[in-house]
Amino acid sequence: MRAAFVTGGSSGIGFAAAMQLAIKGHDLALFARDASRLLAAREAILQEAPAVKIETYAVDVANEPALTEALENALSKLGAPEMAIASAGIAQPGLFRAQSPDLHRRHMEVNYFGTLTFVQILSKPMAQAGGGHIGLISSGAAFFGIYGYGSYAPSKFALRGLGEILHLELADANITTTVIYPPDTDTPQLLEEKRTKPAATQKITEGGGLWQPEDIAARLIAGMWAGRPTVAPGFQMAALNRLGSLLAPLLRWHQKRIISQHNTQ
Fold first, then answer.
1. In the 3-class helix/strand/coil scheme, how is the chain assigned residue by residue?
2. Is residue 149 annotated as a catalytic residue, yes or no?
3. Beta-carbon count within 10 A of 207 CB
4. What number of other Cβ atoms are within 10 A of residue 57's Cβ?
C-alpha cells in the first residue's frame, strides 16, 4: 500500500479524505497554507491511525516553485503515491463588475493551476510505480453559468475539462482520474464563501442540502478506487452531471427570474 498525497489536507474534504485513507493504512503527505492547522490535522489523524507516517508541508498551491519543491520532498520521503487528491481551493462569490482582475487570477491560480502542478509533478512517478488514482474536486458551478460566480465558476469549468482529459490520457499508465462535484458541504470554505455570496446566488444554489465532508470524501475515495470518471453526490448534482446541457436553457430562465425578484426588492 503506497502513500496518499492530499492538498487542502488540513480541513474540510481534504482532511476527511486524509483521515479515511490513513485509517485504511496509507502514509500521508498533507499540503496546506497554515502550518499550525496542518500540525493539528496531523495530530488528529495520528490519534485514529497511530501507525502511519505523516509528512506536512505548509505551502500555497498557487506558488508553483514552492509546491513543486514540497512535492519532490514528499516523493523522496514517501515514494510515489497510490492516491493523490487535489482538494485545495478557494471560493469568493461576487458580481463580475465588482471583482478585481487579481481575484479572477487568484481563483485560477489556486483552483486550476494549483491542481495542474500537483498532477504534473505526480503523474510521472505514479506511472513508474505502476499507476494509481487521482481525485479532483470541482463543483456544481462547473455544469452551467451561475450568477455571482464570475471568478469561481470558470476555474471549476477548467478543472472539469482537465479531469475529463486526464481520465483518457493517463489511462495507459494505469492511472485513473476521478472528478467529484460536491453539493454544499459543511467546511470552512463554505463559511468563507457565504461572506460574499449575493442573495440571488444563495437562492439559486439552495436546495441540495448541506453535506458533511466525511460523506463527500468517502464517495470520492470509492469513485477513485472504482476508476469512475465522475462522482456527483445527491439528486441535483447527479441530474446536472447527466443532463446539464439539456437543462441549461431552463436553468438560465430560472436564474433570471430570481435575479429580477431580488433586484426589485
1. CCCEEEECCCCHHHHHHHHHHHHHCCCEEEEECCHHHHHHHHHHHHHHCCCCCEEEEECCCCCHHHHHHHHHHHHHHHCCCCEEEECCCCCCCECHHHCCHHHHHHHHHHHHHHHHHHHHHHHHHHHHCCCEEEEEECCHHHCCCCCCECCCHHHHHHHHHHHHHHHHHCHHHCEEEEEECCCCECCHHHHHHHHHCCHHHHHHHCCCCCECHHHHHHHHHHHHHHCCCEECCHHHHHHHHHHHHHHHHHHHHHHHHHHHHHHCC
2. no
3. 11
4. 20
Reported residue count of the chain is 265
Question: Catalytic residue among 112, 147, 152, 181, which?
Answer: 152
Rounded to whole angstroms, the Cα distance separating 197 from 204 reads 11
| Catalytic residue from among 11, 149, 155, 156 | 156
Q: Which of 11, 87, 138, 139 is catalytic?
A: 138
- For residue 84, the number of C-alpha atoms closer than 13 Å in the C-beta half-sphere is 28
Q: Is 138 a catalytic residue?
A: yes
Structural domains in the chain, CATH included, are 4-263 (3.40.50.720)
Q: pTM here?
A: 0.91
Is the model's pLDDT at 154 over the cut of 80?
Answer: yes
Contact in structure between 22 and 52 (CB atoms under 8 Å):
yes
152 is catalytic: yes
Distance CA(122)–CA(61), nearest Å, equals: 14
Asked which of 113-122, 183-192, 255-264 is least confident by mean pLDDT, the reply is: 255-264
